[in-house]
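The data layer described in this paper is built around a simple, fixed record for each protein. Such a record has a labelled line for the sequence and another for the backbone structure tokens. For reference, a complete record is included directly beneath this paragraph.
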Amino acid sequence: MTRAEEYRIEFNKLETILKKRANARSEDSISSVVSLLVSKDRVVRQFERHIRQFIELRNAIIHQSTNRAIAEPYEETIAALRQLVVNIEQPKTAWDIATTQLIKVGLDDNLSEVVRRMAQMHITSLPIVEDKRVVGFVSESTVVRIVDKAFEQGGALIDEAKIKDVAYDKPYGDASDIYSYVTRKVTVYEIEDMFNDAIKQGKRLLAILVSDKGDASATPLGIITAWDLHKIDK
């Protein structure tokens, strides 16, 4: 089998996948299908530039009137096309980049111990879980508010204070610092968008919790912070 034939096989796989995602007809051009998908399919939008490059290369190496190959692509090019098909069919998900050894705290945990644990492990936010659901978070903002209040009242922090005794973060945050929830199957590109959208809105997305239901009512299984975004390209 020639490299051109290998390229044609992989390209046909790509075309079939995209047309299926778009519910397109077999006679629809792949370029028009891509244009349609870009507006509604986050994964296709992520790889639009690469898809169009492979379309142009297909047009260059295969004569459209005779459907015969007129050039041979490199092995590396075929491998890249094959990987693109995998990336579109099986994109990375939230579960692939989440920290699954999730540290959780309860309302009756000692505040001083929780803060100490956050400092030792360089954690910026910990979910508070009661009855298998998220009731809030202890974050850096929580600690700052506690310290400010102690100074305002001319008192000191109480080592015996429990989490339930302080103004911890609400399950979805507030007007500036927010938390979000997703299911395991949400793509990493949607996760990336969530962080970028928060910045555009002038907010900080402190963490995204992953659960089976994708909201605060379910037991969190993993957590994603901005520090996990580097895993997307690995």
Q: What stands out?
A: The chain has a mean pLDDT of 90. The first helix runs from residue 3 to 22.
